[in-house]
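Q: Could you fold this chain for me?
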Amino acid sequence: MASKRLLALLLASTAPGLARADAVKIGVVNSMTGPQAPIGENITNGIKLAEEDLKAKGVSLQIVWEDDTGKPQVGLSAMDKLATRDNVAGVVGAYTSAVTNAVAKKAEQYQVPLVNPAASKEEITRQGYKWVFRVSATTGDYASVLLDMALALGKPASIAILNENTDFGVSGGKSARAIAEKRGLKVVFEEAYSPGSPDYRSTLTKLKSVSPDLVFMVSYVADAILLMRQSREVGLSPMAFLGAGAGFSTEEFARETAISNGVFSSTQWTPDVSWPGAKAFGERYQKRYGKVPTYHAANAYAAMMILGETAAAAGGNRAKIQEMLQKGKWSTIVGDVAFRDFDGYTNQDRHEMLVEQVQVRSTGKYYTVWPKQYASGTPIWPFPGWK
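A: Sure. Below is the predicted structure, expressed as structure tokens.
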């Protein structure tokens, strides 16, 4: 409460001046082009909506945009520029775990506050960094909520894990194995694939031969769609398909109604969850951009609201921003956010997770189905099969 009062007082004293002339300079590192641009677009749009709302609260920002193109080396160059030449007060970014892991090291080196909205590789906030803060949940959170749901809805005994061999994918697969074994599930198949391949049918045929009850996948958008198309082709039909967020929680995936119906995905936010402001954000985003936002947009909005308000309250002073981020607590559209140290993590939010499922084959609509207190629909269990 003390930190909230301090933030309010500082905002009250500094915001009018900031709104007139002293805009706070904030950097953004995001995948605006390249293979991850569809989700990067959600992050960009969420940040733009936050910029509007901050301005309405008297906080004027000068946002310096940097496109990492999904490549760690490009992200490193962007962070060098933002920290030195642009002299930003803080940075929101990046999207992919690979880029974020690289950028986080630079943020620590330059002592620039970095607030990450969406990267989930566990190790990002397990390196003792003092200047890196993560709104996003971790890959362990993604796996936990899906497997807890599956075990509550049915009696699966085995699981197959298929993940891309990127930072995000490897962390997601590793987390899924560890949590599955803790829950008493037998891992009968595990493979990391190279993303962007035109054909995964041989891998999926091998997976099918071990007859897993659950198929857990970690993929970005293009691969998520192709994997499900080819799962249909080879006749793979487990008790449940479980997608670890990312590509499985996008409108692009849901629109592929021939292969998306019945697929579960872990997520960090949905437009129909009962968290304050969530529904209004979803409606506003859809009206503005003509599409349903993913959790990446909501997380990016929350990250920019937190950093923007804090940077304004601290007068753009990096050390003060870092201190306030460590001590603060915020009520956001993705739930309450506080950066704490626990279970080997540093400055990590304990993000409450959800599960959504594509239902209504004709429209490809997502419904929040887990946990029960947040559900807008009833889970379809087991997988309804292919039509």
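A (continued): The first strand starts at residue 24 and ends at 30.
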